[in-house]
Specification:
CATH topology of the largest domain: Nucleotidyltransferase, domain 5
CATH architecture of the largest domain: 2-Layer Sandwich
Structural class: alpha/beta
Number of domains: 2
Shape: elongated
Distance between the termini: 86 Å
Radius of gyration: 27 Å
Strand order of the largest sheet: 4-3-2-5-6
Number of helices: 4
Largest sheet: 5 strands, mixed
Length: 135
Amino acid sequence: MKQHFANLVEEEESQIDMTPMLDVVFIMLIFFIVTASFVKESGIDVNRPDAATAVQKDRANILVAISEGNEVWINKRQIDIRAVQANIERLYAENPQGSVVIQADEQANTKTLIEVMDAARSAGVFDVSVATDEQ
């Protein structure tokens, strides 16, 4: 009987409780997911013009790209110029602290740039910037 009891005690002591380690790993996973910042892209690469007074802008949440062929892109989708205001309104409703940054190609028409800026202001966003490359 003593021999049987001694075997039970040895088996019980040799097991490691994994619950605290799993709790710590799960909490770290949640922490990294919550604190991760996700990069937003407009959907196309544009050749931005150079500017001597370029300033880094943080918290740019609504990116609008204008290609050299005057195509407007938002969230990796080509958008008709008449639908830009509705798309900006939707994105601004999701994040009211966001600002609009327009990434216009060097070869894009000024008319298209102005139409996008007007659409952003009509959508209620008055913090509108044009992206440039620093000289």
